[in-house]
């Protein structure tokens, strides 16, 4: 698909094929308005108005489409997404109403990752018309940000290393007039020692770096967005098994979310002073890899005993979070594909949300529910802080107990965030193991829209 195609366009009365939305409760009444041949066509396609059902119905010399939804009075982001992938290329208009939130899923359903394989869907775009012209730009921006996350995650590590994450940040900086600062290689040892330790074993072409972007008026509220950029995670010397490495190209999913959220903030002109930070590394194995038992210095001044080299994401985030707090950020938000424990607890669809302030957590949860991007809050339970105690350093990077792994990881990060800062942590999977309408298998944006809508409401002025 050509990303420049306008998949959502203003309805100015142009020729278009009609789409009828039908739910189970209203199916019989709607079917009575149709001709006998049309009802027969629906019966032949086993269409009864259930969610995600689709049908093509003859209509004179042409045809219209039918789409089953859960409730015609309450459309979701995804209710028309299956139809967007099933219909022939062309222009479409909804009968008797406007698509509303379904515009988003219509757009994202037509995403294809075709960098390495020619797209088999070569017909062209499916265009949906809407009379809500004012909403188009915002919906398209969110869909494009979502697709950016998908593409960055789907790209293999050889083509999406620290250098490529830097290039993506440079592209955003140039597009929006932002300031880009990058600290690379051995220069990290002084200012970002944990980032240096994790990334130093990688080949020179994948050298570690701290990527920082700043944008917005100097007197605007300062918001820091941090994304874990582990471009491939072998596990380090505590090496993963083959099966554990299979999806580790996605371990920079936090960075993908942070970059996409930054693009929304800048592109939509949010009234904030944005500070984007992406610690970008490859956790590799070589003679100079950091070791189990090493004690690392940190930017914060805390010392960290390495009890697991496969718990490296929290190390690079620790230095980044410290830097994020140094310039007076009132809100710090990080995204990370951090723990398998969060996936065991919540599965692949729900990011684990940690927040210091109840009101911030509530705002994020409400925002996510309103745009079909839900999260689930887990606790920053003080009683588990002693699981991170070390005999020889200020703390360990991985608790020896197998309990509460997502919480202890979040508590580790909490030690590197200034006490007075409103801090939010998303432990997100960044991947869909199976296709869903509008949400293909592969890289996934989970928590992105929730964060964006919360920020947009909080800083609307």
From TrEMBL:
Residues of the Cytosol aminopeptidase domain: 308-315
InterPro entries on file: Leucine_aapep/pepB (IPR011356), Macro_dom-like (IPR043472), Peptidase_M17_C (IPR000819), Peptidase_M17_N_1 (IPR048816)
Pfam family, one: Peptidase_M17_N_1
First and last residue of the signal peptide: none
Top-level taxon of the source organism: Bacteria
GO biological process terms held by the UniProt record: proteolysis
Gene3D superfamilies: Leucine Aminopeptidase, subunit E, domain 1, Zn peptidases
Molecular function terms, GO-annotated: manganese ion binding; metalloaminopeptidase activity
Listed GO CC annotations: cytoplasm
Family per record: Belongs to the peptidase M17 family.
PANTHER family tied to this protein: LEUCINE AMINOPEPTIDASE-RELATED, PEPTIDASE B
Protein name: Leucyl aminopeptidase family protein
């Amino acid at each position: 698909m050509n990303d420049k195609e306008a998949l959502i366009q203003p309805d100015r009365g142009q020729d278009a094929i009609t789409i009828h939305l039908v739910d189970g409760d209203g199916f019989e009444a709607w079917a009575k308005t149709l001709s006998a041949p049309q009802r027969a066509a629906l019966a032949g396609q086993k269409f009864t108005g259930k969610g995600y059902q689709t049908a093509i119905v003859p209509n004179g010399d042409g045809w219209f489409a039918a789409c089953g939804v859960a409730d015609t009075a309450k459309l979701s982001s995804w209710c028309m997404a299956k139809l967007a992938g099933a219909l022939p290329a062309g222009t479409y208009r909804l009968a008797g109403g406007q698509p509303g939130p379904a515009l988003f899923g219509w757009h994202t359903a037509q995403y294809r990752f075709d960098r390495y394989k020619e797209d088999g869907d070569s017909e062209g775009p499916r265009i949906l018309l809407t009379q809500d012209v004012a909403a188009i730009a915002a919906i398209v921006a969110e869909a494009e940000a979502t697709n950016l996350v998908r593409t960055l995650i789907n790209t293999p590590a050889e083509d999406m290393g620290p250098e490529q994450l830097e290039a993506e940040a440079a592209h955003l900086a140039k597009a929006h007039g932002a300031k880009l600062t990058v600290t690379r290689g051995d220069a990290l040892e002084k200012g970002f020692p944990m980032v240096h330790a994790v990334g130093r074993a990688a080949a020179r072409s994948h050298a570690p770096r701290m990527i920082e972007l700043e944008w917005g008026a100097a007197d605007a509220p300062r918001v820091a967005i941090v994304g874990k950029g582990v471009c491939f995670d072998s596990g380090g010397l505590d090496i993963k098994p083959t099966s554990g490495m299979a999806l580790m190209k996605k371990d920079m999913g936090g960075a993908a979310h942070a970059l996409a959220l930054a693009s929304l903030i800048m592109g939509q002109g949010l009234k904030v002073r944005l500070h984007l930070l992406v610690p970008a590394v490859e956790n590799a194995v070589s003679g100079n890899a950091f070791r189990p038992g090493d004690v690392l210095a940190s930017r914060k001044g805390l010392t960290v005993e390495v009890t697991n080299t496969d718990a490296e994401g929290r190390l690079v985030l620790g230095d980044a979070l410290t830097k994020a707090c140094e310039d007076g950020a009132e809100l710090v938000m990080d995204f990370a594909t951090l723990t398998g424990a969060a996936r065991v607890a919540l599965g692949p669809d729900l990011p684990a949300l940690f927040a210091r302030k109840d009101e911030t957590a509530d705002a994020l949860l409400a925002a996510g529910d309103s745009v079909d991007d839900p999260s689930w809050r887990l606790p920053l339970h003080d009683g588990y802080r002693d699981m991170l105690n070390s005999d020889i350093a200020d703390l360990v990077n991985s608790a020896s107990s197998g309990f509460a792994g997502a919480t202890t990881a979040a508590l580790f990060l909490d030690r590197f965030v200034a006490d007075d800062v409103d801090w939010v942590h998303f432990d997100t999977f960044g991947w869909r193991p199976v296709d869903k309408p509008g949400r293909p298998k592969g890289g996934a944006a989970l928590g992105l829209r929730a964060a964006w809508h919360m920020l947009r409401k909080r800083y609307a002025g």
